[in-house]
Amino acid sequence: MSLGQKLAPHLPFLRRYARALTGSQSHGDNYVRATLEAIVAAPGDFPADVDARVGLYRTFQAIWQSTSFDDDGAAQPPFGAEREAVAQARLQTITPLSRQALLLTAMEGFTVTETAYLIDSSDDEVEALVADAVAEIERQTRTDVLIIEDEPIIAMDLETIVRDLGHSVTGVAVTRDEAVAQAHAHRPGLVLADIQLADDSSGIDAVKDILAEFSVPVIFITAFPERLLTGERPEPTFLITKPFQRSTVRAAISQALFFDAATVAA
């Protein structure tokens, strides 16, 4: 099997991680594109002593730490001390290292040891970074959350996670029409949405209707991520696969609100 064939199944999920890091599909895809270009240009440099998925993310992390992109998507690689300053500034203002560690472990499912390899840290440092990120989640601004989910047990689980994080739940909608009506009645600060709803309506359409009225961060939670990770149309910045871990939902909520707060501050 060629290297390209080994990497292909992991690319949609690398794109998901890149979007979660940058808060933008276009910027995330720029980093993934640069990663693939680096692999094609120097296939002999691709890590041969680890799993292909780990090697892919390792290459991505190297690109992330050493390359910035201008508004047109053109790569602007910094050099020397300037390179280090730009990289550190970006990590501090966009996605701190603690959040990278949390996303890699909680959302992408890497072990602590694998994450340590990916971000050039020790296992103890990764555990401390994740703990810092979790503590930051608990300190962050509270918001009102609309849950769009037609499976009662999953909806209850999500509601518990949201409340445990200190947020409020404005309501639980099981259809597109219910979701839109509840959003209009009480504007949420965050939406958690399933794709397939009770009356065969679409959570995607519900979100489109809501976003047509006002801007709000959205996290899709679905058993069918391949329906959204096609690369053929705009994709959600935050996408969680069912069945999910509570830590994954916590990480996604934290990151979604992190970017929303950054936008408001800007």
Automatic annotation (TrEMBL):
Keywords: Phosphoprotein. The modification 4-aspartylphosphate is found at D194. Residues 144-257 form the Response regulatory domain. InterPro entries: Bact_response_regulator, CheY-like_superfamily, PhyR_sigma2, PhyR_sigma4, Sig_resp-reg_PhyR, Sig_transdc_resp-reg_receiver. One of its GO terms (biological process) is phosphorelay signal transduction system. Gene3D superfamilies: 1.20.140.160, 3.40.50.2300. PANTHER family: RESPONSE REGULATORY DOMAIN-CONTAINING PROTEIN, STRESS RESPONSE REGULATOR PROTEIN 1. This is Response regulator. It comes from Sphingomonas crocodyli.
